[in-house]
């Protein structure tokens, strides 16, 4: 027994050291990182006194399943003002009635740096007159006609885009409304107007000169008749000093008759629309500061 033990001890003393296994690779994040994490870092570290953001929300509508993209900024006290435009009158009234619940910080207390809110029942565009189509789902309403022959090819798109009411309406140019906006300008422009995005941008060329971020819905197929697609919106924004940053979300629907039984709305392959984020060209910003 003693011999066996000594043999074991000798073997242990001559054995190679245990190999250290590499640390496991962290899984890829399921969602994009939050917008503007640098603002929180700089504010908390006291590196600089950051100006608060002026937000314009075109097509403002609170959906029960998601919050507005600017709300995390607002809860952290980063928003000076939020001015929203929503031509669906009852939706605009609901927005204004919810202002009191928005003026709170993340812990539920009153924010020490309150945000000025204002929601107006106007359709923004290039100043032209047109017909506003109120659809069966308010969030799909548009100044453009839904492309039903295409939409009915996909699961549950025709059902939410059926026009239930039409009304003549003059669109307003954001540039003409700048004097009524707190601070007279825009830092963060969010657009969600169902195919009418380019018209809104064309009516905001003066505002875009000082805008830092544009967060806009874009479409890859003609979901609304004669609508500009992603390529045209992208070209316009690049021509106005912006660069593409990323898609914050991409959406689709399965084409009939195929669908997943567990989730009929889960896209199989075809992407239809997305939320695209553009930022002011940093190289251009550097040149303007040097000049």
From TrEMBL:
<dbReference type="InterPro" id="IPR053188">
    <property type="entry name" value="FkbM_Methyltransferase"/>
</dbReference>
<protein>
    <submittedName>
        <fullName>DNA polymerase delta catalytic subunit</fullName>
    </submittedName>
</protein>
<dbReference type="GO" id="GO:0008171">
    <property type="term" value="F:O-methyltransferase activity"/>
</dbReference>
<feature type="compositionally biased region" description="Low complexity">
    <location>
        <begin position="1"/>
        <end position="23"/>
    </location>
</feature>
<feature type="domain" description="Methyltransferase FkbM">
    <location>
        <begin position="57"/>
        <end position="244"/>
    </location>
</feature>
<dbReference type="Pfam" id="PF05050">
    <property type="entry name" value="Methyltransf_21"/>
</dbReference>
<dbReference type="InterPro" id="IPR029063">
    <property type="entry name" value="SAM-dependent_MTases_sf"/>
</dbReference>
<feature type="region of interest" description="Disordered">
    <location>
        <begin position="1"/>
        <end position="30"/>
    </location>
</feature>
<dbReference type="InterPro" id="IPR006342">
    <property type="entry name" value="FkbM_mtfrase"/>
</dbReference>
